[in-house]
Amino acid sequence: MLTLLAGQAHNVINAGGIAYHTGQCAQDADPRVHQAFAAGGGAAGGGDPLRRQAVKVLLAAPQNAVFFHQVILVFGKQQLPGKKAVIIISNGKSTRANGYLSRTEEQLAGIRESAKINTALLDYISANIREGMSTAEIDHMVYEFTTDHDAIPAPFMYEGFPKSVCTSINDVVCHGIPSTKEFLRNGDIVNVDVSTIYKGYFSDASRMYMIGEVKPELQRLVQVAKECRDIGVQTAQPWARLGDVGAAIQEHAEKNGYSVVRDLCGHGVGIKFHEEPDVEHFGKRGTGMLIVPGMTFTIEPMINMGTYEVFIDEADGWTVCTDDGLPSAQWESMILITENGNEILTE
Ligand code: MF3
Ligand code: CO
Predict the structure, then answer these.
(1) Which stretches of 161-258 are assigned E, i.e. beta strand?
(2) Angle between helices 49-60 and 31-38 (to 10 degrees)
């Protein structure tokens, strides 16, 4: 990734889809950036080919401009052979400078460390989860392992969530609260969703576990949910759109006779637990935010055997259950979008 902007080297005002260059270029700014903006300062369609390309991208992705108040400028292959570069400017600041949506190298280093602990924690759960165990015992394992690694379980006291991990059995879609009264029984499928804060950086992932002898129809649900997650990850390529990811997941789930939960989605993660963008697991190709290098977000489709409708248990305000009581499965990866593809940070 080219680091194109230093601080507020370039200030851009986004006025109804027209980008104006208003600032001074820093001495150390990439000359190609300077060129692009210097040619502009005018209206849509004016200026040189680089500028026209920028405006074209802006107009083609109005959600980005309107929803995030930012300008996306893409240097196409023709202008810069072999290189694609992007500048995302939010309120006049480069995201590379403020880490909003696209991470700085320093942030990424911290996020990677957090994600390593998160994966080690999932491996530890995988090695120790047992039939007959209470979900409170899983919570205990998560708390001990995380704090032993000088980290904090992100769910703990997050918006009032009382435990360190979400444990979601059978018809529980997500956000199940561990309890001393709830036990893993033969034939259950359970999602264990762990999130870690290390030196202020966040990571998030989950896996499914099959307890004892699980019915083939449930095994298939767990398997297809995993495939949906993997297809989502494969589709989350730089310069694709978030709608491409949702559409690919939805197609695979529905082809297998399942449904995709609509009310909960994946999310940006790294600087905060939940941040932009929302990553829906259903949708239309060619719509939604442009996926750009430097983003870190989760893909975590919740796949239901029956209806996609869900409700939140009023008794605790957290537990999300399927409306029809049929089972649900979920696998979650957290990924980094790179120049040429993506990298799984934790899963
Ligand atoms: N880890 C969940 C996710 O994937 C969020 C859990 S929020 C909590 O986004 F408060 F329930 F922990
Ligand atoms: Co998540």
Answers:
(1) 166-169, 172-174, 189-198, 201-210
(2) 80
Ligand with an atom nearest the CA of residue 162: 1
Tens-digit pLDDT profile for residues 17-45: 333 333 333 333 344 444 444 433 333 33
Is 166 close to ligand 1, i.e. is its CB under 6 Å away? yes
Ligand 1, atom 12, lies closest to the CA of 155
Global pTM value:
0.78
- Choice from 135, 168, 175 to test ligand 1 binding pocket (greatest atom count within 8 A of CB): 175
What is the CA(320)–ligand 2 centre distance, in A? 14
**In angstroms, what is the C-alpha Rg of the chain?**
22
Are residues 285 and 243 in contact, defined by beta-carbon separation less than 8 angstroms? yes
Q: Is 280 in the pocket of ligand 1 (CB under 6 A)?
A: no
Whole-Å CA distances, 89 to 86, 110, 237: 10, 23, 21
Chain centroid to CA 248: how far?
A: 16
Joined tokens for residue 263: 């009310």
Question: How buried is 37 (Cβ within 10 angstroms: 0-12 exposed, 13-18 middle, 19+ buried)?
Answer: buried
Closest-approaching ligand to the CA atom of 268: 2
| pLDDT tens digits for range 73-98 | 333 222 222 223 334 433 333 344 33
Listing DSSP states for 260-294 in one string gives E-SS--EEE-SSSSSEEEEE-SS--TT-SPBP-TT
